[in-house]
Amino acid sequence: MDKKKLNFAVFCVENVAEYLNLSGEEIYLLLAEKSEILDKYVVEHYDVLHTQGKEYIVNDLVEYMEKEGLLK
Description:
72 residues, 5 helices, mainly alpha
């Protein structure tokens, strides 16, 4: 993974964690180990996602996590 994609992935994890009032580690586990959202969505669609605003990205990821049953 190149540096831009890595930085974006960290941005996503940390901002979703802040929004959900969870730790970055908890969100990383949900996005990378309990699902493939981080690799198959965030990193794979970096070119489109990184052009969006923070609020859009966070809401999009939270919605995706809810659809996948990762959030209760």
